[in-house]
Amino acid sequence: MKKLHLLISLLFSLFSFAQSNTETTITKIIIVRHAEKADDGTKNPPLSAEGMLRAERLSTMLADLKIDKLYATPFLRTNQTLTPLSKKFTIPIDNYEASDVAFAEQLLQKEKGKTIVIAGHSNSSPTLVNRLIKKELYQKLDESVFSKIWILTFKGDELIDCSLLNY
Known about the structure:
Blueprint: H1 2-23, E1 26-33, H2 49-61, E2 69-72, H3 76-89, E3 93-95, H4 101-110, E4 115-120, H5 124-133, E5 148-155, E6 158-166
Helix pairs in contact: 2-3
């Protein structure tokens, strides 16, 4: 009986520790719209020279963080926006579909405890932020706006900060 009581106590302690550890896990999700694109008349244009400079600026701005994961839609401009970060941290860029509602739902669980950067579009970046914060707070960006960056911080599953900055 004593052994059973001890075993139950030990299991309860381990469960409580695991639960409290999960609740204090910090996850950072950084979402950006792709940098300026070239006006080449195609559906999948590369970044312009100005866009390449912005992508480098983003990499410099985030250089002191430990970036664990990069996501971009399967377009040249979103991937090029994250390429300097990919090179700096020697991590690949994984593609996601901006229209995939499940991506936002699964992201926090899949990447818990990590710092990730996601490049999207004028409509998909604010939509992704809204899905993650569970509020309709941000509207589609104007086509001329490339400077927005959202930094979402979660403690466990709870949003503790959502900052919107210009870079």
